[in-house]
Write a structure and sequence with these properties.
Blueprint (H helix, E strand, L loop, with lengths): L14 H21 L24 H4 L5 E2 L2 E9 L12 H10 L8 E7 L7 E6 L5 H8 L6 E6 L2 E6 L6 E6 L2 E6 L3 H10 L2
Antiparallel strand pairs: 1-2, 2-3, 3-4, 4-8, 5-6, 6-7, 7-8
Length: about 200
């Protein structure tokens, strides 16, 4: 997730769209990798895709809040500080995270981001947790979603969440204390199971 400068106004891409773009790009690259090169043999050669393995663990307490399994899938987790968000491979706006941190008297290094993805790379869905210490998650929502009217309050997994409406994207946002959880690109039943498994 490469940090981008934070454009102004309607040109700013929202966090959910960047995260989904990263998920789509990852899914496409995995699909292409799974296809492999054509072989002259008439017998199909099975292609094995390696399971995902855990990544960096710079924010273990935050990562521990993400589910180890949900909806019959096992998840692998990674976590970083705000200065290393690019290593997760999802697009987050570092400049926006830094602005939110400074408003709380913090730095980008104080921001924590954790993710969980299915161990099986052929399965979709990313769970993100973003913590800007001391910030109200609503501030993170307002800063990362360009049109607050697109957020629709709903109940899912026994929790009050926001769905991203009118976008055609399967993104659910769950604010809790100073943490903003997001489920991106998962089927509806898996999204419900993930939300239910969050604190």
């Amino acid at each position: 997730m490469a940090p981008n400068p934070s454009p102004k106004g309607s040109d700013r891409m929202s966090l959910d769209r960047r995260a989904l773009a990263g998920a789509v790009a990852l899914a496409l690259s995995l699909t292409l990798a799974a296809c492999g090169a054509a072989t002259p043999s008439s017998t199909p050669v099975p292609t094995a895709v390696a399971d995902r393995t855990p990544g960096p663990d710079a924010a273990p307490e935050l990562a521990a809040m993400l589910p180890a399994s949900a909806g019959g899938l096992d998840f692998v987790k990674s976590s970083v500080t705000g200065t290393d968000v690019a290593s997760l491979g999802v697009s987050l706006d570092s400049a926006e995270l830094e602005r939110l941190a400074k408003a709380q008297g913090k730095t980008l290094a104080d921001v924590q981001v954790a993710e969980a993805r299915p161990v099986d790379p052929t399965k979709g869905g990313i769970v993100l947790a973003i913590r800007v210490p001391g910030a109200n998650p609503k501030e993170v929502v307002d800063a990362t979603f360009s049109a607050s009217a697109a957020l629709q309050l709903a109940t899912m997994g026994g929790k009050s969440v926001y769905r991203i409406g009118a976008s055609g994207l399967n993104v659910v946002v769950y604010p809790k204390d100073d943490i903003l959880f997001q489920v991106v690109g998962a089927p509806a039943d898996l999204t419900e199971a993930i939300i239910a498994a969050l604190p």
